Amino acid sequence: MNQKSTNVMSIIWMTIFSIIFLILVGRFLFIQVTGEVQGVDLQKLADEKRTNQYTINADRGTIYDRNNIPLVQDHVVYRIYAILDENHTTNPLQPKHVKNIDDVATKLAPVLEVEASEIKEVLKNGKETDKFQVEFGKYGNELSQQKKDEIEALDIPGIYFSEEPIRFYPNGMFASHTLGLTKKENEEIIGISGVESFYDDVLTGKDGYISYQRDKFNYKLLNPKEVITEADNGDHVVLTLDQKIQTLLEDSLTEVMKEYEPERISAVVVHAKTGEVLAMSNRPSFNPNNLGNVENWYNDVISTPFEPGSTMKIFTLAAAIEEGVWNPDETLQSGTYKAGTNITAINDWRRNWGTITYLEGIQRSSNVAAAKLAYEKLGPEKFLSYLKAFDFDKKTGIDLSNEVIGKIQYNYPIEQITTAFGQGTTTTPMQLVKAATAITNNGKMLKPYIIKEIIDADTGETLTKSEPEVVGEPISSETAQETLKVLETVITSKVGTGYNRYKLDGYSLAGKTGTAQIPNSETNKGYLTGRNNYVFSFLGMAPANDPELIMYVSVKQPNLKDDEPDSAPVSFIFNNVMENSMRYLNIDTDQEKLEPVKLATIPEWRNATVDEYKALLEEVGIQPIIIGNGKNIVRVNVDANAKVTANEKIIVLTDQPTMPNVKGWALRDVITLQEMIGIEVKWSGEGYVKKQDIKEGTELKSGDILTIELASPTS
Fold first, then answer.
1. Where does residue 261 rank: exposed (0-12), middle (13-18), buried (19+ CB within 10 A)?
2. CA torsion angle for 304, 307, 309, 315 (degrees, to 10)?
3. How many domains does the chain have?
4. Which among 5, 264, 350, 527 counts the fewest CB atoms within 10 Å?
């Protein structure tokens, strides 16, 4: 190659290298000036790579009863995970990742109650796919504090825990259909039924977060540019339910389920002057902490319409009185009633009492008397207008999910007749109770409600407060009073269907029994036969002259003994719950009591020493639980002048608190102790306290952690 060619090639290569150099320098200058590469902001990318960000989980709001006793609350459980990446370990002498899969699987298996091979497979698959960490599915979720402690005691490298909240129901199977259920969706708790669903937006909070910049060793920089956005916790919901009345109801329903094994039970207690629901329950029910095999997801009180039977005669009677066609002394022929040539005859349940008065017809629950009042005295159109005035064609509007209305079956004369005594037409228990508020409230019908107020969880401020709401006035005050007087004779008259069956010690009672036939679902024709194939019910109001409470109970297909009345399971529930609720609410008696009401008034504790206050409590028949050895009182769990039963737990906190023996306590009582002292309570199991990890007599201070194990009374 000649010299000339060599010079040309040199010039060409120098030109190429110069162009490349200029391009690279230009690129570096561009990046330096703009800070971007292919549209990516390098500074932003660097910040992201060295920035840690953590979520601050918002608490879901607590659901309380009317006296601020927690019925549903968040409870912390744990999720186990294993880190597999060797780079997580910086000091070989202190490994922070899983080193020996077989060893880890062998140790974890008995605690997680799973085969070691399943744990080994999870770890092995994670290793093979280069995962940083793995979890263990259902076996590693929702672990109790006790399980976490057991695993931590094994000291397994690479095994860690994260906290996760779940919804906890301290009372187990307690107003379960009313309180409702939740589910986890994308790590968020979402309400799916009951109050949890209806007020999901209120109960759900908004998560916050914390972020800061770090170095490669995960330590904060000197200027970490820390940003904190606080979580906005969900608001608290306070119900109108009363925990004590609800407990009375739950216990009574459970007793009847054991004794009579009915297909269904529904019951509700409502304040007659306000429409507040004080207690509501159904059977079958479920324990929301441990669902198992759920037989009934529906809140039958509001979601399951049925033919109500003779309780509907209350409203037939009220309509007749309002229209001036009620004459209690007028007579009729009982037994059978045929309203027209082409109309099917209807019968009394007893077939024939001969000639009776209309008053006796109501007392005896005569279908013929009710039919003649509605079809002849009122007329079908007028009677229908009253059914609609009592809102039997509308939802009650109660603040709960999944309310269903019944149907007024009224197309043919026979349907217009049978509706008068609760057959054919369907309704829900809540519709009946809502209509009954017009009877107890001087003609003014009230909307039933279950939410008392909503409270801001962070500030304690009341955001909304429910008030009684009149939604109709189907009858006059005079009619309401007359109806109550007639219904009282159903209980007091010797021929009344409630005589000697429904009885409240110290209180008068007005009400109506019901024995509803059950449609034959197999043939879709007619009704079931046999003594047990009915829905037995009672709608009662007390005291009779000016009711404070309304209660409805229905029991479907109980196994009755040959020698007991049909009303036995219903009257057991009603009498027990209604009488004790009246006493508990300190409602004045209007009849001579068989036994004195055993309620004690809590004395004032301020300005009294512990010994002085203990003596005051013992004088009124209460044995208090004294927390600590101090001489001065810091707090008492029940307000002064409150009325309580002798077996109520009265906890007196002294200025030197020590750990009491809580074995046998209900969880709600331990939670009360937690709130009084400021300790943290962690628990496992269900039922009553079986074990406690802080010994009796140990000094307590705010922030101490008490771990308890719960068990059922039989375990």
1. exposed
2. 80
3. 4
4. 5
Same domain, 204 and 325: no
Cis peptide before 70 (omega within 30 of 0): no
Under DSSP, the state recorded for 642 is: -
Q: Are residues 328 and 363 in the same domain?
A: yes
Q: Which of 153-162, 314-323, 331-340 has the highest mean pLDDT?
A: 314-323
Quick: pLDDT tens for 319-370: 999 999 999 999 999 999 998 888 999 999 877 889 999 999 999 999 999 9
Mean pLDDT over all residues of the chain? 86
One domain, residues 699 and 620? yes
**Residues near 637 by beta carbon (within 8 Å), at least 6 away in sequence:** 649, 650, 651, 672, 676
The amino acid that residue 58 corresponds to is A
| Other residues' Cβ atoms within 10 Å of the Cβ of residue 420 | 30
DSSP symbol at 553: E
Rounded CA-CA distance 178/174 in Å is 9
The domain spanning residue 207 has which CATH number? Answer: 3.90.1310.10
Q: What is the layout of strands, in order, in the sheet containing 277-283?
A: 277-283, 264-271, 549-556, 534-542, 510-517
Catalytic choice (193, 310, 567, 581): 310
575 CB-near residues (< 8 Å, 6+ apart): 502, 503, 504
What CA–CA distance (Å, rounded) separates 349 from 360? 14
CB of 610 within 8 A of CB of 658? no
Structure-token pair, residue 82: 């294993």
Q: Is 114 helix (H, G, I), strand (E, B) or coil?
A: coil
The count of residues in the chain is 715
310 in active site: yes
**Same domain membership, residue 315 and residue 352:** yes
E-strand ranges in 450-533 read: 451-455, 462-465, 470-472, 510-517
Work out the number of other CB atoms within 10 angstroms of the CB of residue 34: 10
- 693-707 per-position pLDDT tens digit: 999 999 988 888 888
164 & 109 share domain? yes
* Residue 589 · residue 470 · CB < 8 Å: no
Q: Show the domain range for 300.
A: 243-337+344-452+462-561+568-583
Contact at 8 Å (CB) between 424 and 418? Answer: yes
What's the pLDDT score for residue 229? 75
DSSP state at residue 680: E
d(CA 263, CA 296): 11
Phi and psi at 340, nearest 5°, equal -170, 170
- Looking at the DSSP bridge assignments, the partners of residue 554 are 266, 537
| Cα–Cα nearest to 150, from 98, 113, 122, 190 | 113
pLDDT in tens, 171-223: 888 999 999 999 888 778 899 999 999 999 999 988 877 765 655 545 555 56
This prediction's pTM: 0.77
Other CB atoms closer than 10 Å to residue 365's CB: what's the count?
A: 24
Q: Where are the alpha helices (DSSP H) in 59-184?
A: 101-112, 116-128, 145-153, 176-179
Strand-by-strand arrangement of the 705-711 sheet:
680-684, 705-711, 688-692
Both 478 and 623 in one domain: the answer is: no
The residue ranking higher by pLDDT, 508 or 206, is 508
- pLDDT beyond 80 at 306: yes
Least confident of 235-239, 302-306, 697-701: 697-701
Percentage, residues of the chain above pLDDT 70: 90
> Is the residue at 588 inside a domain?
no
pLDDT of residue 714: 47
